[in-house]
Amino acid sequence: QITTLINHKDKPKRSDKTLQAIQRVGQAVNLAVGRFVTVGEAIANENHELKEEMSVACIEARRAGETIAQLTDVASLDHPESDSHITIFTDKTGVVKAARLLLSSVTKVLVLADRIVIKQIITSRNKVLATMEQLEKVSSFQEFVQIFSQFGNEMVEFAHLTGDRQNDLKDEKKKARMAASRAVLEKCTMMLLTASKTCLRHPDCESARINKDGVFHRMRLALEQVIEIVTDSRPNGENEMVPISIYSGIKEFKNKVEGLRENLYFLSKENLSTMLEVILEHTEDFTDSAYTSHEHREHILELSKQAKMELEQLVSVWMQAQNQKTKDLMEDLEVAILKTCQCMNELKREVHSAATSLAAELLKYHMDHMVLKALKITGVEGNLEAVAEYTCKLSEQKEQLVEMCRLLRHVSGTEPLEITCIHAEDTFQVTGPQIISAAETLALHPSSKIAKENLEVFCEAWESQLSDMSMLLREINDVFEGRRGEKRVYLSLPRPGKHNANLKALKPVKLDTEEQAKIAKLGLELHLLTSDVDSETEKWEDQENEIVQHGQGMSSMAYSMYLFTRGEGLLKTTQDLFHQAEIFATEGTKLASALHAFSDQVHYDDKSLLLLEAEKLISVCKQLQITAKASVQGKSATFTKVDACILKTRNVMTLLCQLLPLCCKLLRKNKAGNGCLKPAPPWREDRIRTGTNVHTPERRAETFGIKSLENHVTNMTFLESK
């Protein structure tokens, strides 16, 4: 909105609509700043150590917002008495200064708020650690129950704080690491409960003590990693060393090789040779592995040898081309580049096949959990000899699965999946010995119900990780085959060539500067409508309501279409926009269906009104769909279609702005839900909802195991009675 104000073109003739649009933008900015500052002031009141800094930043922001509102108060310009009134037209530098002050002060507020959030997470972690120390030293069962109840509540708080932080992280790698650490904490909470109970019931049992110590140690490591991610630092200032995978090595190597087409001098032959050596060293993880088939091993060795030969040929032609740029030499260089890249692609395909075929085979073989079942049976029987035999088999299985994770990491294709492989490897590495110590404890105390329960918990963790590996394998294959990997920010990202038979006939084009200027006003109106819709959806208490979800999804897509009118965002071409418009219209039709279902819950008098509005929505969505699917040719016709799509999207959003408050009112009136309007929550709970895909995996990534943790705490009363 600020950018729109600053970039607007001064024209001698100003229509009433232009003046009203400018005034609306100024008011919208001021209102948004007011809401933002109110939250900032609430934060300041709760955190006295930063109160002064935060208050100053909030005052600056509020002042800048009011200045922008004053300078854009241009509706009265046509009246003579307003000639002396300073506006954006008479003092554009004033708007620029106010905008700079606003952005500066808003940034200060965000940075200060972020410091507070980090402090909250650290404080929460410290409370958890302190309670863990008490749990480790506890000697009576009754005391343990009381302290564990407190520990459970603290873990729930930590789960909420870190869950919010995980959702806010922009770095996918950090997000994956945070998810892995929080998964460890979730599983270990139940393990800590049963392992501690077993130790209290059998205080002289060495295997029970080892089992419990392992859980505490793993939880401390996970807590430490969360703080490293949150504070973006490591102990002693050391850098995190993540081993390079074969995939990432090949990708970088190919980029350098292909870069020779543009510049023959940007790197040395020694650099390329070193990069290939590192890749081939990593392939030894496959060729040296006892679990790699003979066929795969031979193919990898052959391709490694071929890669060296292709690089030698490439370097030879490259060096000649540096001295003499003839047409023949440049053609030879192109052939050498293609052959080298093709060889690396074949190597990548071979290691992928080796890793995934091994993983599929192992997961299928171990999915019956025969070793775990045998350990449970022989443990209850108190058969120490049989338990020792099956623990050896479990150790072998662990080694196989650890090796599988190492090989899969090399071919995972993305950094988040690499981190997931590393996490899986650690889980098998740690959980294996813990199952063994739990089984030994049960074998020594075969009648102990708590020892049996403890072994069950660790076996469940193992089975759960095996199940996760099946999902991980599918994701790795999806990335390799190009079905996954692109980041989806909005409800639907158009992918040209799919979904629409007409797309092949269309040449994907972008709007030029003149076209962007023509459509800017319509785009701005669309932007203001998305703000209105977002404000309406925030008023609903039940954010999972189907009507709210469709409304949020439509607002998100409309915003991406607004960004397109500015030449920004993820919709790069007119073809992208048309496909987005189709999906937007489909989502509107789904909303209309939800309104029909909702109409059955309201009084008869209200039902007819709601159905009438739903029919209007269906009608405008159909119009938009027809427009988006219409085939056009030529620059002028394409722009006309773009204009029509944005206009019809605006019409849908205008109707949506009327529908949402109506539904909210009817819901409240009929008391069909738990209430509609939210009370003003504390700032920590007032999470700003972003325009992300309401159906994406990110949406499902809620705070870790909070329900299960709360169940642990609730069950403490029953536990104490036992």
TrEMBL record:
<dbReference type="GO" id="GO:0007266">
    <property type="term" value="P:Rho protein signal transduction"/>
</dbReference>
<comment type="similarity">
    <text>Belongs to the vinculin/alpha-catenin family.</text>
</comment>
<dbReference type="InterPro" id="IPR036723">
    <property type="entry name" value="Alpha-catenin/vinculin-like_sf"/>
</dbReference>
<dbReference type="InterPro" id="IPR006077">
    <property type="entry name" value="Vinculin/catenin"/>
</dbReference>
<keyword id="KW-0963">Cytoplasm</keyword>
<protein>
    <recommendedName>
        <fullName>Alpha-catulin</fullName>
    </recommendedName>
</protein>
<dbReference type="Pfam" id="PF01044">
    <property type="entry name" value="Vinculin"/>
</dbReference>
<dbReference type="InterPro" id="IPR030045">
    <property type="entry name" value="CTNNAL1"/>
</dbReference>
<dbReference type="GO" id="GO:0051015">
    <property type="term" value="F:actin filament binding"/>
</dbReference>
<dbReference type="GO" id="GO:0005737">
    <property type="term" value="C:cytoplasm"/>
</dbReference>
<dbReference type="GO" id="GO:0007155">
    <property type="term" value="P:cell adhesion"/>
</dbReference>
